[in-house]
Design a protein that fits this description.
Layout lengths: L5 E4 L8 E7 L3 H8 E3 L14 E9 L2 E11 L10 E7 L2 H13 L3 E2 L4 H8 L5 H12 L3 H11 L2 H25 L7 H22 L2 H9 L1 E7 L5 H9 L17 E7 L2 E7 L9 H16 L2 E7 L4 H4 L11 E7 L17 E3 L8 H12 L5 H4 L6 H22 L4 H19 L5 H8 L7
Parallel strand pairs: 1-7, 8-10, 8-11, 11-12, 12-13
Antiparallel strand pairs: 1-2, 2-6, 3-4, 4-5, 5-6, 9-10
Helix pairs in contact: 3-4, 4-5, 6-7, 6-15, 7-14, 14-15
The structure holds guanosine-5'-diphosphate and magnesium ion.
Length: 456
């Protein structure tokens, strides 16, 4: 599979100043050489050029110059894939890049599958699986915080942690197996104690890592936030305040927002998917009825609800809407329009964080952002969690590893045959190995790399 040469456009499809076409594999230099006519004084063919050098020339096909390009020669092993790589910078826009790619394909390269470059980097041992996944995270990160986390993972921080855990369990398993081999020497009580202590330290470490899953999911996927409330409470005004620009139409006329509006906002590194909704009321107008139905849907989907209350209205009107969907949802109550005379700020204390704001003057908005952050990062992980954050695949395997380690400990504790503990340890070791890709299956590779787009 790795002895063919692959090529793909590595930059996004669309118009731009430049596009890059990437070639990787044993024939990369030869294939590029058949498509490239060097120009200028230093006119070396790619195969004759030194590694990590850039060459000016043309892509030619059937004697015809297709595009003026810069061609970079990168020789194995100091390349992204550890294979010979050629990167061709051609003119941006769909057509030039496609012509260059077609020429390469006509001269012996094969079109790369999605993620195949990264997959080769993995298969050739340059990066492990968690690092390969980080490449995807890096490309898809939407806030600086998510980006910082992805680059930590790309640098191998998570891999090192997992490998340390795995090595530790390997050591424990070796000790247990030594006793199996010499059955006449029964395991000494101190040795058993020692093994159990080390095992419990290992599982505690797995627990800590498992706890980063929630934050990892938040940073990768964002959290969905529904802004709800009665008509005219100031929901659309709040959306605009949180965004920092005017996205939704604001009007004193009740029932202005009829459809739900979804936008992405970056709240100090926290990716939010905000949904502004139609005001919740008994509507006569069928369009508004549909809007209300969608509001309730958004409410049901939300991880967090921002409930906007008009504090200048009398208390009865601003009381909590009797919505079944609100039950058990993380919620912040926002008392809006505190700039108006007669706005009352007090609310029955009921454990729901309540923030007074004015979406007109911006007063209280910073406090609201703080409250959102606090609620989402419950436990205040911020700085520490940047170290590592596992994804759902890691989470699943880590939970299995922890379970096996627990089983091993229980077996040792109850003085069951040592073979059983050794088997459980072996299982835990394999689960950890699967996280970094030490034990892999074809299916696993497919499921990970198919999430990539072509050219990566
Ligand atoms: N004085 C004052 N008016 C506000 C405030 N927030 C919103 N409004 C006004 O309230 C009306 C309804 O606002 P809008 O955001 O459209 O409410 P929605 O129906 O809940 O989306 C508009 O006239 C806004 O200008 C506020 O904090 N203070
Ligand atoms: Mg509105």
């Amino acid at each position: 599979m790795l002895n063919d040469t692959i090529a793909a456009i590595a930059t996004p499809l669309g118009e731009g100043g430049l596009a890059v076409v990437r070639v990787s594999g044993p024939e990369a230099l030869a294939v590029a050489g058949r498509c490239f006519a060097p120009a200028g004084r230093n006119n070396l063919s790619p195969a004759a050029a030194a590694s990590h050098t850039v060459h000016f020339g043309h892509i030619v096909r059937d004697g015809q110059k297709l595009d003026e390009v810069l061609l970079t020669v990168l020789r194995a092993p100091r390349t992204m894939t550890r294979e010979d790589v050629v990167e061709i910078s051609c003119h941006g826009g769909l057509l030039p890049a496609k012509l260059v790619l077609d020429t390469l394909l006509s001269q012996g390269a094969r079109l790369a599958h999605p993620g195949e470059f990264t997959q080769r980097a993995f298969l050739n041992g340059r990066i492990d699986l968690t690092q390969a996944e980080a490449v995807n995270d890096l490309i898809h990160s939407r806030t600086e915080l998510a980006l910082a986390m992805a680059s930590e993972q790309l640098s191998g921080k998570l891999s090192r942690l997992i490998n340390q855990m795995r090595d530790r369990l390997l050591g424990l398993m070796a000790q247990v197996e030594a006793h199996i081999d010499f059955p006449e020497e029964d395991i000494a009580p101190q040795t058993r104690e020692q093994l159990l202590r080390e095992l419990s330290e290992s599982t505690a470490q797995m627990e800590r890592l498992l706890e980063t899953a929630r934050e990892g999911r938040i940073l990768r996927q964002g959290i969905s936030v529904a802004i709800i409330g009665l008509p005219n409470a100031g929901k659309s005004s709040l959306l605009n305040q949180l965004l920092g620009f005017d996205r939704a139409i604001i009007s004193p006329q009740a029932g202005t927002t009829r459809d739900t509006i979804e936008v992405f906002a970056n709240l100090r590194g926290l990716p939010l998917l905000l949904t502004d909704t139609a005001g919740l009321r008994e509507a006569a107008d069928p369009i508004e009825q549909e809007g209300v139905r969608r509001s309730l849907e958004a409410l049901a989907r939300a991880d967090l609800v921002l409930q906007v209350v008009d504090a200048s209205q009398n208390r009865a009107a601003s009381a909590d809407p009797p919505l079944p969907g609100l039950k058990g949802k993380a919620r912040i109550r926002i008392l809006n329009k505190i700039d108006l005379p007669g706005a009352h700020l007090e609310f029955e204390p009921d454990g729901i964080p309540t923030i007074p704001v004015s979406c007109q003057t911006g007063q209280g908005i910073e406090a609201l952002k703080e409250a959102i952050k606090k609620l989402v990062w419950a436990g205040g992980v911020a700085a520490e969690m940047l170290e590592v954050m596992i994804n759902s695949r890691h989470q699943e395997l880590l939970a299995k590893a922890r379970q096996s380690a627990h089983a091993a400990a229980a077996g040792l504790q109850d003085a069951l045959p040592l073979e059983l503990a050794a088997m459980d340890l072996r299982r835990a070791i394999n689960f950890l190995g699967e996280i970094v890709g030490k034990t892999i299956t074809e299916d696993l590779l497919d499921s990970i790399f198919s999430q990539f787009c072509i050219g990566k």
